[in-house]
Amino acid sequence: MWDQLPELILTLIFDHLECRDRFSVDRTCRSWRRALAAPVLWRSITIFIDRDLRSDSSPTKQLAGQYGQYIRKLELAWSRPYILPSETRATWNIRAKEGVEFIAVIKNKAVQLKQFVLTDWFFGSNWNHRSKLLYAVAHFLRCQRNLTSLSLLNANLGVSDVLRLFRAVSWSCGNSLEYLDIRGAFKDWQAPHSNSRYLQYLERLHTLTTFKLDYPALSDLALNSLALAAPKVLRELHISVRDSDARQHTIQDAAWHNLVAVCPQLTVSYTIVNISHYEDISYLLVPSVPLSRFHMYGGHVWDQSRSRNFRTTIGLLISYYSKSLSEVMLQLRNNREQLDDLLVSLVERCKRLTNFQYNGIIRSVGTLQEILNLQIDNKTSFRTIHVKPSTVNLRNRGALDEINYNYNHRMLDRGIDFRIDGPALSFC
Question: I need a surface site. Which of 70, 238, 391, 399 has the fewest CB within 10 A?
């Protein structure tokens, strides 16, 4: 019965199987084997080095030898990417050795990838086959000619390790790479922003349109390298800024101005995590940044000897970026500042704002009504408003019900995604 299923149905079923299970399918019957040979099943695969490559006769390596030529997106990861006790290191050395052998298999198949991803790598310490595995990956990347996307998200490598991979890609795919994500690629406190090799490799990426990175990888020199590499091509910079990042350096407004001059379609996104104080944020908010998306997560802990001064931070957003902001997310936990008037001003003056999310305290129901009336009167163009303050207040529950009754259908008729998320609102 099962061997009589149409090949298309079998292909759809096999698409949900991991490599180990596909190996069993391959040994079942001829019709299943024919269905398994469909190129679409092998366009995108994820290999967990410590789980899928367990022996010289690994099913995954055998399947790669049979169908590897169809792979266009490859992700290499570790299923348990944390530091293990020293007595288990020998096992992980063996896994890394088998990773080298797997890469040799797909390299021999002359695989040409479109996308390559390294995520959550187990490189917390030095161990024997670490350099061999990285060398094999770099050598494989050096043979690629059509790579358009490279992600090293949370790879947690040293600067020299990342630059080894970066060098290979910049030499082989400098005229094809369009997407690069190096957020979390470098170990904490390692800042490559002024490294001459890093800057040199950036200058070779002539087709780069989207670049995602952490603040320690950004500098005046890095912006200048991007301007030289991809004039009129670079369109998106996603910058992550965390409290654990090395932030001793600042980026001058002139460097942003020069980059925007040669990349007029550039938009910038900031994601700020666990940084609350205005003094720690203001150096990011210089006038020439073409800021489109601003996400801020205030966190639970902050220096209580000084004010976080959110009012001034939001004031800068309104003053500098009212013509460019399209998305704002403010997660301001435990904030006691009066922000109602600035929230209304932010929504009213930022004409391109289409997505506004706020998790904090609103002190008056009238603030919500003002924001909603702006949309009803066609004075704003946002498509999404999610309001997420802290706790419920019985005194205002009736007012919230009235807001939902008066505005829900009117927003729905205009195609607005509006909701008040739980637990509820807190009005002091």
Answer: 391
